[in-house]
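Q: Structure tokens for this one, please.
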Amino acid sequence: QVQLVESGGGSVQAGGSLRLSCAASGRTFITNTVAWFRRAPGKEREFVAAVTWGLSRTSYTDSVKGRFTISRDNAKNTVYLQMNSLKPEDTAVYYCNTSPASEKLWGQGTQVTVSS
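A: Here is the predicted structure, written as tokens:
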């Protein structure tokens, strides 16, 4: 059974950078689109970015375009989210999952806190 584990979160000042990792373990890596989501305090979980399996096509929510970059290393069974020019409104718990999301794959997430 596949599990996804997020890591790389932390506390940074506005304008800083972080790189999140989503590592898959278990039977096999997910050979479909993988996405990052986030949940800010008091808000619903929202889509952030996604990357497809074959051609690594990417998509982003408008608020992170030009600042975040999603990528995947299939050999390492890992998906990354490079976050630059972070803003206080990026503060949230970040999760990875397939897209569409599978209820079985939600993990603990990784906390990102951006101070002004």
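A few notes: The CA atoms of residues 2 and 26 lie 4 Å apart. The longest strand covers residues 18-25.
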